[in-house]
Amino acid sequence: MKGVRKTYDNSCTLSFLLVFFVLLLFRPAFSINTLSCTESLTISNIRTLVSPGNVFELGFFRTTSSSRWYLGIWYKKVSERTYVWVANRDNPLSDSNGTLKITGNNLVILGHSNKSVWSTNLTRRNERSPVVAELLANGNFVIRYFNKIGASGFLWQSFDFPTDTLLPEMKLGYDLKKGLNRFLTSWKNSDDPSSGEISYKLDTQRGLPEFYLLKDGLRAHRSGPWNGVRFNGIPEDQKLSYMVYNFTENSEEVAYTFRMTNNSIYSRLKISPEEYLGRLTTTPISLEWNLFWTSPAEPQCDVYKTCGSYAYCDVNTTPVCNCIQGFKPLNVQQWDLRDPSGGCIRRTRLSCSGDAFTRMKNMKLPETTNATVNRRIGLKECEKRCLSDCNCTAFANADIRNGGTGCVIWTGQLDDMRNYAVDGQDLYVRLAAADRV
């Protein structure tokens, strides 16, 4: 094993000499955003890595009232220090003895007595090619082979391990090839980067993929399914000229991402300890953060399952919870006491044949746990298939683009619905013929 180590170290040394020669020739372009296998960052030397374009900076930091040290990434040009990633958030350095270096194929943070407090935990490979760590222009911190530039050479990347922030070109959701579920977890509070109790995760186990805001692992808010433009339950996330949203669902990944078409504007999604997901965006002139929207946006109607089954929330009614047409409160006394959690039941049982539908406009679609999707058929065929299935309770378009395409069919109870003034979807709920007005 000593022979193997010596061969690797010689390779690293020779490669470093080559890197050093290149840096002498092209210092302004290459010297500030990479860390070679013979270099290190320490708290004492105050060195940082700066991404091409000077947008992001990586280094050690401590928060306002803390003596603990962390390795993180922040926006370099924004006047208010804004952290977007923290490596050792749950294992901080207790004092100013801290070093970031490459050991083998791994990045490690060493503390007092050279004890490791954080590592990328990569399995050592047989390749003799040395590696470098690099802070990319988009804020992604990567380990790659020295002689391979581009994603094909990445051994590890911070974008696969987000903390509380989603940056442009990051992906939130599942990488099925790597077996990774990338999700956001809030800071404990505004001055403590350690993992808080609020998280934002994609659920793909049943029905359509939907994001959930979780508090201590319990569902507090649901995004609604992707409708081709945005998540149905976040109508605030409007289409903008300088931003493109995308949701991918295939055999390799199920994930959400966004990118900027104007690089002078910064935008990010952040999960807050105050129990919301927010989009923050700067203006090119001020470089100050503006809070565009939060989700949940409304404290009554955006709470998960606030009205119970077969009921929907409407901020313009009193009380805000309403039974769907053809339904009545399961427990009238409870309902009159403003406790709608029991939901509603049908006034008339379905007969399977002769049933009809009521059209509910501008709706947040029900939770899709008991739903199936067929993207090849339209609304008319969707209605026929729902009527032919006695267990079908509702249907809607899967995609709102081009007048509406695809078919979502619910079987079982309908939960977590609300309506919007605009930008919701049409939902067709099955009723007995006697309840069709």
Summarize the topology.
Blueprint: H1 2-25, H2 27-30, E1 34-35, E2 40-42, E3 49-50, E4 56-61, E5 70-75, E6 83-86, E7 99-103, E8 106-110, E9 116-119, E10 131-135, E11 141-145, E12 154-157, E13 165-166, E14 172-175, E15 180-182, E16 184-189, E17 192-203, E18 210-215, E19 218-222, E20 243-249, E21 253-260, E22 267-272, E23 276-282, E24 289-295, E25 311-313, E26 321-323, E27 327-329, H3 332-336, E28 344-346, E29 356-364, E30 371-374, H4 379-387, E31 392-396, E32 407-411, E33 417-419, E34 425-431
Parallel strand pairs: 25-33
Antiparallel strand pairs: 1-10, 2-7, 3-4, 4-5, 5-6, 7-8, 8-9, 10-11, 11-12, 13-22, 14-15, 14-21, 16-17, 17-18, 18-19, 20-21, 22-23, 23-24, 25-26, 27-28, 29-33, 29-34, 30-32, 31-32, 31-34
Distance between termini?
Answer: 81 Å
Q: Shape from CA axes?
A: elongated
Radius of gyration, whole Å: 26 Å
Count of DSSP strands = 34
The chain-level mean pLDDT equals 90
Level of helix content? Answer: under 10%
Q: Structural class from helices and strands?
A: mainly beta
Share of β-strand residues: 35-45%
Instruction: Note the main sheet.
Output: 8 strands, mixed
Segments where pLDDT lies below 50 for 5+ residues?
Answer: 1-11, 13-31
In DSSP terms (H or I, runs of 4 or more residues), the helix count works out at 4
Task: Please state how the strands of the largest beta sheet are arranged side by side.
Answer: 26-25-33-29-34-31-32-30
